[in-house]
Amino acid sequence: MMKLCEALEVVALHRGQRIVVATMSAAGEWPKWSDTPLDFIYIPSAMGQAPSLGLGLALAQPERGVLVLNGDGCTLMNLGCLVTLAHHPANVFLLIVENSLYEVTGGQPTAGAGRVDFAALAKAAGIERVYRFDRADAWRGGAAEALSGPGPVVVSLQVEGRIGQKTPKAPRPMSEQIARLRGGLGFTPS
Amino acid sequence: MFDGASVVQALQDCGVTHVVWIPDSDLGRWEPELREAPRLQLLRVCREGEAIALAAGLKLGGKNPVVLIQCTGLFEAGDTLRNILHDLHVPLFLLIGVRSYRAHQKGESTDSCPVFTEPIVRAWQIPYVLLDERHAPSDISDAYRRASAKNESFAVLLAE
Ligand SMILES: [Mg+2]
């Protein structure tokens, strides 16, 4: 197991110029590591839909690529996204922060906690590049490979669950986030 | 009259780049033309909420997608619609097949789909038009152009 902050520190080192879409517990922490126009804190979200949003961005901006920081609870809400990601090759790197909890609601266990194998699910969905890291040192050593090359890639990160966390907040209103992201992608305001 | 060739033509004429879809038995007949359309990319998804989010990502990334689904999928996709249209304010253009609409109008169907589709679209505050056999594919492109000009979401309900 690694701490969430250890997992995200490694992501920040390797994200390059790619868009980062962050959800759930990762969304609350990610601005400490990066807060550029290409860092999209998806709050408020439609729970489960960050990988699909990220796929759309990656298909529209194929040269740029997208990292999606997703939880295990929200991945469970949209398991079909693994199949869709496999079906439409694009530079999407889906990082599943696995803590077996709904951390943002206080820390209740997810269905399948301790049994479900997201890396195996991703493989079975047809995604060829799948990685799983249990410890921070392994993630530090493997991230350069996992987060380079062509997508889709799924990375399962085993992270310590935290009980009693506050619901994460976005660093700025959504309208501002959208305007920043569009500006970061080179679009002029409409 | 709506068929795959004329709908593809209408969408391409107004600059649509991607069709994100899950077919139903009516719209599914358009598959060959959608698949082969030279200026459209057909994107298959597993569930309709995904279609909404994927289309929103495309739109944020500078493309012009439409979402093509059945009303049953609209019912499923509610939270994603709420979030994308009303939290993110990303405008989307939706083509939604209304299952059993014509039979319902004639009192020949007990399918609840036509009962709920328009109230649900209104509940999500999406302006819409319902097209049937009296309309033409140009009504779709006209609606698309009007919605694009206003940078607003719009739903075209297609009577099945
Ligand atoms: Mg979790």
Task: Produce the secondary structure layout.
The complex is a heterodimer of chains A (190) and B (160).
Chain A: H1 4-14, E1 19-22, H2 24-29, E2 39-41, H3 50-60, E3 66-71, H4 72-77, H5 80-87, E4 92-98, E5 101-102, E6 108-109, H6 118-124, E7 129-133, H7 136-146, E8 153-158, H8 174-184
Parallel strand pairs in A: 1-2, 1-3, 3-4, 4-8, 7-8
Antiparallel strand pairs in A: 5-6
Chain B: H1 4-13, E1 18-21, H2 31-36, E2 41-44, H3 48-60, E3 65-70, H4 71-76, H5 78-87, E4 93-98, H6 101-105, H7 113-123, E5 128-131, H8 137-150, E6 154-159
Parallel strand pairs in B: 1-2, 1-3, 3-4, 4-6, 5-6
The complex binds magnesium ion.
Residues 71-73, 99, 101-103 of chain A line the site of magnesium ion.
Uncertain stretches of 5 or more adjacent residues of chain A: none
Q: How far do the termini of chain B sit from each other?
A: 12 Å
Following the backbone from N to C, one meets helices and strands of chain B in this order, namely HEHEHEHHEHHEHE
Largest interface, counted by CB within 8 Å of the partner chain's CB: A-B, 32 and 33 residues
Number of strands of chain A: 8
Number of helices of chain B: 8
* CATH topology (level 3) name of chain A: Rossmann fold
Q: What's the tally of helices of chain A?
A: 8
Indicate the structural class of chain A.
alpha/beta
List keywords for this structure.
heterodimer; A: 190 residues; alpha/beta; Rossmann fold; six-stranded parallel beta sheet; 8 helices; 8 strands; 37% helix; 18% strand; globular; B: 160 residues; binds magnesium ion
Q: What report would you give on this structure?
A:
- The complex is a heterodimer of chains A (190) and B (160).
- By secondary structure, chain A is of the alpha/beta class.
- Chain A has a single domain, classed as 3-Layer(aba) Sandwich (Rossmann fold), CATH 3.40.50.970.
- Chain A is built from 8 helices and 8 strands.
- In chain A, α1 runs parallel beside α7.
- The longest helix of chain A is centred in the first third of the chain and has 11 residues.
- Chain A is globular, with a radius of gyration of 15 Å.
- The termini of chain A are far apart.
- Chain B is of the alpha/beta class and 160 residues long.
- In chain B, β1, α2 and β2 form a beta-alpha-beta unit.
- Chain B has 8 helices and 6 strands.
- In chain B, 47% of the residues lie in helices and 19% in strands.
- A 6-stranded parallel sheet of chain B has the order 2-1-3-4-6-5, sandwiched between helices.
- Chain B is globular.
- The model of chain B has no long low-confidence stretch (mean pLDDT 97).
- Chain B has one domain: Rossmann fold (3-Layer(aba) Sandwich).
- Chains A and B meet through α3, α5 and α8 of A and β2, α3 and α5 of B.
- The structure holds magnesium ion (MG).
